[in-house]
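Example record used in the benchmark description.
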Amino acid sequence: MIGYKIIKFDIIDSTNNYMKKHISSLEHGTMVIANEQTNGRGRFGNTWISEPGNLFLSILIKSQEFKDNIFDLHIKTSVVILKLLQVYNISAKIKYPNDILVHNKKISGILVEKIIYESETSIILGIGINVNQVDFCDLKYKATSIKIETNKFVDLDHLVTDFITIFNQKTSIDNLYKEYLDHSLLLDKIVEYKNKKYIIKTIKKDGQIVLKNKEETLVIDYDRLSLSHLYANL
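Model output (structure tokens):
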């Protein structure tokens, strides 16, 4: 369960960084929330545009639930965000491995970091959601927000409450996994790997991608396959 303890900031460098600095004193399920970040990050150290009026949060996972298969947490979080957006009548898709898109524009991103402190392994789940931002400047063709999609201002406290409620629902990973696949943008797309063309047949529960052509079926890690050209055509 998450959300029993919530630490809020109007502005902070990074909710993930705060959690790392205080990880020894924070309990499982603690959430750190900010309305604005000055040093938000995505995968590979990429900058996350962290304008005020959006939602940036980190969740500390100290239980064993996701430690054996960290991609389960990607699956669950992605589906939770899909369901959260459905509350606002927004239909979204999953851009593997960690982005949520609406009309092929990014509305949310996920960053999962494994932290080892004094021999104890914890997971910090970072989430950014574009909520009330309407001007994305040079990224206007690549990003959107709840307000843009609904033309309505969203109360961030209500959004957080809805997020916690949905995240804490007891749903089996099998059901979440099915919904994850149903909303994936990858399945049945054609990609090239080692100068051969394949169809993406599925994404396994551990995050590996299954490729198939007439000659063979391959199972590969996500970081061995470039998907940038595929997403560029969305």
